[in-house]
Amino acid sequence: MAAARLCSRPVWALCRRGLGPLTLQRGYRGDSPSESGKDLLEIPLPPWQERPEEPLETKRARLLYESRKRGMLENCILLSLFAKENLHHMSEHQLNLYDRLINEPSNDWDIYYWATEAKPTPVEFESEVMAKLRDFAKNKNREQRLRQPDLEYLFEPPRSQQ
Hints:
Blueprint: E1 13-17, E2 22-31, E3 40-44, H1 56-68, H2 73-86, H3 92-103, H4 108-115, H5 128-137
Antiparallel strand pairs: 1-2, 2-3
């Protein structure tokens, strides 16, 4: 039990001792059902992997989908609106940073807290894309953001080209 405790790493990283050196593993850690007899439930997640051979349009489509289908409504709204405004003009490098940002952390609340500056962003996720997301979350234009955008915008040219 002691080996499975969280280390002084970001919340998304669980530390375990294997046969070799200490390794980091992504996972979910939370309360267990009372009938399980355990205090904590740990579910390992597969490691995030970059997709360098993925075509850009496929990557944009996947990231749009993944921005809309999150584990919590707050991120569904925030990330889907951010994706609508930004994915179409992001460079390949920026798309890779965004991919890592939304898919490597196993806890969606971490992403939300970083974007809203409720918690500091860990160094490994601090990037130009994270800065854009933080700025977007400030909603300087005071737009009403109560739901995800409709999908019809996928068939319209981006605003910057109209």
